[in-house]
Amino acid sequence: MNPDATSISIRNVAKTYDDGTAALKATDIDIKAGEIVALLGPSGCGKTTLLRSIAGLETPDVGSEILFGNENVVDVPSEKRHIGMVFQHYALFPTMNVAANVAYGLKVRGVAAADRNARVDELLEKVRLTAFANKRVQELSGGQRQRVALARAIAPRPRVLLLDEPLTALDAKLKESLRDELAELLRQFGITAIHVTHDQQEAMAIADRLAVMNRGVIEQVADARTLYEKPATAFVAEFLGHINALDCDTLKRIGVESAADSLYMRPEHVRVDVQDRGELTGQVTRIIYQGDRQRALIAIDGAQLIKADVTAAETIRVDQRVGLSFPRERLFALSDKK
Amino acid sequence: MLQPRRLQYVHIALLTPVATLFVAFWLIPAFNLILLPLSRLGVAEGLARYAQVVGNARYLEALFNTFALSLGVTLCTIVLSACVGFYLSRFCSARHRGWLLAVLTLPLSFPGVIIGFYIILLGGRQGVIADLSELSGGERITFAYGFMGLFLGYIYFSLPRAIASFAAASDALDKALEEAAITLGASRWQVLFDVIIPGLRETAIASAAIVFATAMGAFGTAFTLSAKLEVLPITIYNEFTNYANFATAAILSLLLGAITWLVLLVARRMTDAKGALL
Amino acid sequence: MSRGQGNARRAPVALRLCVAATLFFVITPIILSILAGFVVNYPTGLKSGLTTRWIQEVWAVYGDTLARSIVLAFACLVIAILIGTPCAYALSQIRSRWARALEELLMMPVAVPGLATALALILMYGHFKGFRSSTAFILVGHVLFTLPFLVRTLIPAFANAELRALDEAARTLGANFAQRFLGVLVPAVLPALAAGALMVFTLSIGEFNLTWMLHTPLTRTLPVGLADSYASMRLEIGSAYTVIFIAVVVPTLWALQAGADALQRYFTKNR
Ligand SMILES: Nc1ncnc2c1ncn2[C@@H]1O[C@H](COP(=O)(O)OP(=O)(O)OP(=O)(O)O)[C@@H](O)[C@H]1O
Ligand SMILES: [Mg+2]
Q: What is the extent of the structural domain holding C251?
């Protein structure tokens, strides 16, 4: 692990903007040194606000605590926090070339030219841009800019790396390859990193743990598998894939006793039998072809609508009668109601 | 996104030099000017002088002349420079546009006195118009020293900057809007009135404000022409230098300043253009 | 952008006439004055022969005004940039009432006729004889009058959202305010700064309304000298003086303009 990396504790951090928008409500999260955490959530949920508060670019409400190791940095201005940040549109300095951009953080801290150049060369090699050192940043492609931004943020050996949707400005194909490269680089650097994104695939590919946010609140922090299989709230369950909520009527018909009003199951776990055999029967109302599989909307006789996945090869059509089974081990309860 | 930010020490430090300069050399002198008639003549007589000056027929006539002249000049300049600017942007090949714009904006840095001299060369006693009119059998026509001379001079003075603004604004017009209007079946005139003129409106108001303010305060041109038509800046100058009538000069300056500022205020309310100068 | 397109279409006749008339109106007196500056006797015309005598006479009588005006314009430019740039940055960042008031005050010397400003200055500071009779007195007037143009050009450039991101990036990299302002922000608004500076120079070199009131016989500027020559010298000398003005000022401005354009191009390339 990188010796510069620090653990981070967010305690009771909230942010209300001048116009009264409560963008972030009292938030807590602990991040281990060298850990990569993704802040995941829909647009406007407060991801950027939390990240910028950690960066010192927003002043959180009174009472907020942001601990880097044991040091509370809430009152430390951004330029003294010793962080690295990658901005959504990179914010590369247009008046400097690639090498000067990467060197900037070292230069303003008064690092000697020789050490500076050595560090710049090392980083440009890591991000495969050695040949571009003297190019103007305007001449680079999107992917290259993204890597310059990363190298620039890393160069002064920050205590934590903050990334605000660093891949969002790229097109889909490039995004995927850069995603894996970024994950690889971050692990090489061994740095504490907080990665903001609204793309769950990206979050899962890059982060050790994911914090799912909704309306200014972190709903759950866990690794990808736990989040998917044991979501703590309906929001988390819905945000990572789809769910069926089985109401008490349906539960009774399949003979499940439950204290909760409803239990949940993901569409890919519902078993569909085209021969009309199962715990319940229903009629297909719609089929959505999705390439690797098909999603069927099935109306259970006299009751609710269920989403279920069948393989792409299966022949199934609208109005067909099918049977449905609900494997018990895949049923789960949620702490809050939808 | 521009979020509101509170005044911070850094900002105060950055603003201090300009604020000091303007307070010391503009704001305080301006207040001094307002109070000057009272301090020189005593309160009662000072106030009386205010009333006397504001009610004086000769001064009022000069004010009216200045105002009417400025208004006419503004109107003509805007129409003319809108046409020329639009022409340069739309109907001119890049090659011709270059030199045309260079020639038309050549007088940008000319002081008003040069313009006055130019008007004398055109319409003065030894001017070309006089020569030409004599040559064609008439009497020598001179127009430099009256209303016409001032009118043309002020237009000449204002044209370059206004043309440059309109050329830039015409370049910035979104062509897609015109194309959309055409695909919807608009005629050339309809496109002109519904798309192009509204698109140039902000520029027109901003330019008009500058032209008007410049014309109200123009002094050099009128000074060179020693015009028979009296405009207020000349009146003020005469009161100050020739009659050493400081109080009256101060009051007239305030009057001229207040009226100009008011007209500009109205113009600005009409646009709330962010980039506009006034 | 639409520039250079639509050449295929010809302009309506009325529009072309309007442009031609304007061009004629602008060009004729310039040509006349250049001619008059070199002929031996203006009323007789070219027949009287050409001479540089008038130019030499102007040089002898008014030579000092040229240097003074150029020095004055550059001094005005330097001061405007030094105090106007930080001011424009601060005004672009804050929405407070005081900042708006200052912005309003800044426009006053442009909105209010120069004569009024000059009068206010003289009646307030005229009795400080050393100051009154120095070029600094004129310089103050020029800075008051030109500064708003620079500040107004810079404010939108500084308010740009992209620039704000650059500033934040520099902060996270550890740069303090001075490092950010001089190393990141000012370089990024250089094109706007150049455009504003050009305006300042242009306005200062041709300023007459204020200067005529503020000058003394020992601090005459180009426009003041011009007015003096028009009033008291023969027409040929006035013309020759005008020729000198054009010959010095216009190329200077073109050079500055070319510099500003080059900056602009450098910055917008591949952006
Ligand atoms: N400067 C601001 N002033 C007022 N409200 C703001 C400001 N910045 C953000 N907000 C509001 O705060 C809420 C959270 O914004 P934030 O930018 O943190 O969301 P986000 O999760 O990053 O969204 P996105 O995915 O769209 O970037 C939003 O409702 C937003 O409108
Ligand atoms: Mg965001």
A: 62-270
Q: What are phi and psi of B90, to 5 degrees?
A: -110, -30
Residues of C in contact with A138 (CB under 8 A): 269-271
Closest CA to A82 of A157, A151, A164: A157
The domain tally of chain C equals: 1
User: Is the domain A244-330 a CATH 2.40.50.140 member?
Assistant: yes
Identify any residues that bridge with A194 across adjacent strands, giving them in sequence order: A37, A162
Same domain membership, residue B31 and residue B67 = no
End-to-end CA distance of chain B: 23
| Residue B51 falls inside a structural domain | no
Q: Minimal CA–CA distance to A54: which of A38, A67, A41?
A: A67
Cβ-proximal residues to A220 (8 Å cutoff; 6+ apart), any chain: A211, A212, A227, A231, A232, A233, A236
**For atom 29 of ligand 1, which residue has the closest CA?**
A44
CA–CA dist C230, B31 (Å, integer): 35
Q: Are residues B161 and B32 in the same domain?
A: no
Chain C residues touching residue A152 (CB < 8 angstroms): 169, 173
| Nearest CB neighbour to A108, from listed C174, C187, C188 | C174
**CATH for A8-239, options being 3.40.50.300, 3.55.40.20, 3.40.50.720, 2.40.380.10:** 3.40.50.300
- What is the interface pTM, i.e. ipTM, of the complex? 0.87
Give the tens place of pLDDT for each residue, C109-151: 988 888 889 989 999 999 998 999 999 999 999 999 999 999 9
Of B150, B240, B149, A118, the closest CA to residue C115 belongs to B240
- Domain(s) of CATH 3.40.50.300: residues in chain A: 8-239
* CATH code, domain with C80: 1.10.3720.10
Mutate to test the pocket of ligand 1, among A45, A165, A198 (most ligand atoms within 8 A of CB): A45
Res. C212: pLDDT tops 80: yes
pLDDT computed for residue A240 by the predictor: 87
**What three-state secondary structure class fits A304?**
coil
Percent share of chain C, pLDDT over 90: 56
